[in-house]
Amino acid sequence: LSSVPLQILFYINGIYYIFYFLATLAMIVYKSQVFSYPDDFLAPDLALLFIMAILEVLRLYFAFCFLRGSKGNLTEEEAPLGLSLVITVGSVILSVYFLVWQTYVLKADVIINAVLLFTYGLGSVLQVIAIAAFV
Fold first, then answer.
1. Which is deepest, 35, 52, 110, 132, by most CB within 10 Å?
2. CA–CA separation, 115 vs 110, rounded Å?
3. How far apart (Å, rounded) are the C-alpha atoms in residues 104 and 89?
C-alpha cells in the first residue's frame, strides 16, 4: 500500500531542500552585503532558516528514512506520516515567512519558495491519501 509517487516526492524534496537552504543562505548573505540589512533582522532571519532546516530533516525522517527505509510510507504506518504532516505545517509557515515577511524579498526568493510550497502542498495531499489507504 505504500505510495510510490509519495516516495519519489520525498526524495526530490530532500534534494530540493538542500538547494533551497544553500540558495536562501547565499541570498541572505548577499542582501546583508548589498542592501542596508538591519543587524536586528539578520540574526532572526538566519535563525529561522536553520530552524526550518531542522524541521525539514525531522519531517523527511518521519516520512522517509534515507538510511533504512524504516519509517512512514515504506512500512505503511500512519503515525510517522501523520507526524511528518504536522511538521509540514511549521515548514509551510516558515516558507511563507521567507516568501512574504523577511526583510528583503528578491524575485529569486519568490521563485524558490513557490516551488517549495508547491512540493509541500503536493506532498501533503499524497500523505493524506497514503494515510487513508493505510487505515
1. 52
2. 9
3. 23
Structural domain count of the chain: 1
Model confidence over 41-60: pLDDT tens digits? 999 999 999 999 999 988 87
Q: What is the dihedral of CA 68, 73, 77, 82, to 10 degrees?
A: 120
Contact 123, 16 (CB under 8 A): no
Q: Is the overall model pTM greater than 0.90, yes or no? A: no
Hey, what's the cell of 57? 530533516
Name the residue with cell 552585503: 33
Q: Which residue range is the domain that position 114 belongs to?
A: 3-134
Place of cell 521563485: 111
Secondary structure of 56-124 in HEC code, one letter for each residue: HHHHHHHHCCCCCCCCCCCCCCHHHHHHHHHHHHHHHHHHHHHHHHCCCCCHHHHHHHHHHHHHHHHHH
For 55-106, write each residue's pLDDT tens digit: 998 887 776 654 333 355 666 677 778 888 899 999 999 999 999 999 899 9
